[in-house]
Amino acid sequence: MEWALIPIVFIIAVFSPAIIGIITDHKRKTLKLKNEMLKEEVKLEQIKHENYLLETEKMRLELEKMQLENKTRGLCSTDEKIIK
Q1: Torsion of the alpha carbons at 56, 58, 61 and 67, rounded to the nearest 10
Q2: pTM of the prediction?
Q3: I need a labelling partner for 37 at 20 to 30 A (CA). Which of 47, 56, 74, 80 fits?
């Protein structure tokens, strides 16, 4: 009975480091890909934020322009203020 365990223990001892190495390498690559994905998501969020700021500024300028045009035509009430 003891003799039957020796080959099994030997096989486990020989192949365990290789299997552990493969698993570790896979986990490392997976984490690296997740890290790259997170970096790309951060870049995308920064671009979205910049776009939001630009669109907001554009809308503010368009509103200011419309208010000035209305004021020159005499259509603007005295209570309207230009948004700054």
Answers
A1: -80
A2: 0.60
A3: 56
